[in-house]
Amino acid sequence: xxxxxxxxxIITKLRQIHLSPMTIIAGTFVAIILLGTVLLMLPAxxxxxxxxxxxxxxFTATSxxxxxxxxxxxxxxxxxxxxxxxxxxxxxxxxxxxxxLASIFVFALRKKVGxxxxxxxxxxxxxxEMQGVVDLQKTVLLGSLAVQGTGALILFLRFLPDYGPxxxxxxxxxxxxxxxxxxxxxxxGEFAPGAxxxxxxxxxxxxxxxxALIVVGGLGFFVWEEVIRVRKWKNFSVYTRLVLxxxxxxxxxxxxxxxxxxxxxxxxxxxxxxxQKLLNGLFQSVTVRTAGFASVDQAGLTDASKAVSMALMLxxxxxxxxxxxxxxxxxxxxxxFLWTRARGRGTVSVFKxxxxxxxxxxxxxxxxxxxxxxxxxxxxxxxxxxxxxxxxMFETVSALATVGITAGATAKLSVLAQYLIILYMYFGRxxxxxxxxxxxxxxxAEERFxxxxxxxxxx
Length: 459
What we know:
Oligomer: single chain
Largest sheet: 2 strands, antiparallel
Structural class: mainly alpha
């Protein structure tokens, strides 16, 4: 009886704890990662039947849940069918968000969605209001499953003649989910261990399908829902127009730059026919922003191309999407602010709309945090691992932006550096999200007093 009373008191106290939605999101991601770690540590998860140990399992589970794509081992070579099923499940949960998947049961059971559930849905989708969030959540689920299903079918039909129905089905489903969720995991290692998308870099059907899935997943649920619903450019919201313009500009700029910088580089595009060079230049531009599939050897890129890759990775995809990075509109706001201040003006505006100063400060905060963490992490990796600073910076930006491509540094990381990358992947997916949500949803306390102003020399 005494034990029962103690448990009753503990449960009662736990129910009285009021956790913020941001805390719930961050804590749930930790729980999912730990569950994935335990499952991947099982001997059945490894192809050789021997447990991989805690650290590799934690690294892989974090990378999958945070839809990053950095790996210590080739996915097909290391993990059995069960292990691959765990990984792709973690990718789906991390990409769509646990609230999106949990809402399936709510909708299926025709349960009423309460205020707290609506708030969690809004925050998981990076929305600053709850109006229409349930309908949007349904659209996200149906649209995501439809896009992934279409991609899986196209890939299945393409792989079927060469590899048979079993392999074609597994490859189609796995890579469609991985691409849409911008994860970058692949199982092409059955025939080309470690080659990633380089195994299919001469196949336009596969490359274009993967690119389409990556782009749709990286645009953001709100954007493609509005595009489908509104259809007319002049009726799009300012946010949607900025996302579409910035995304197109980054893809085009990256395509041109990669083709120009790598055209004659024998380690990347140099040995390919002209058409294949153009295809893989575009693929590189798409994948470095959000996904992590590598159609060319990233270690073979010129330093200039690595710098372009890091810039694109830093920007990433759009808010409320499966992609990482500081987000496209965040960078647009920062660029508009710099252009405005350079002209001696104080008001930031776009499309005849003024951007609030608070949003500008939010953008500056997020970008500054990510850049500083990238530099600090690169320094630590350089000190503890046999990696040069450029490749170390490439690694930290890739982890923080949850992109998942590497210039060869992942395999060389020390134990301390591996744990740092684990933290960076988690922060890149959850930390940036919760900071952004804090800007959107947090109650900004009214200042009770202000100190006297002072003049400083700037510039």
